[in-house]
Amino acid sequence: xxxxxxxxxxxxxxxxxxxxxxxxxxxxxxxxxxxxxxxxxxxxxxxxxxxxxxxxxxxxxxxxxxxxxxxxxxxxxxxxxxxxxxxxxxxxxxxxxxxxxxxxxxxxxxx
Length: 111
Prior knowledge:
The chain is an alpha/beta fold. The chain contains four helices and five strands; from the N terminus they run ββαβαβαβα. Helix 1 (24-39) packs parallel to helix 2 (57-72). The longest helix has 16 residues, at 24-39.
């Protein structure tokens, strides 16, 4: 999984580029990225999922890890650009009640 990020003041947008979110190496890479950003003073992370087609249980765990890391450090974690498959996975697991998610990066930044 490739990750590209942009920092805007104390917010970061991380764009994930992968057909599926949830390979074994994805978890550790993502956790390290979030911890690095928190160390740099980032208090809000918006995860851009526009290039992610599918998500599995490991991918859901990755999202939960990001949420927990940011929340425990006093920050916020949001998702943007989810396709119907990912929205469905969040709904089935009831994680749609946990995560903030938006239709676009601009909408996520505005909130």
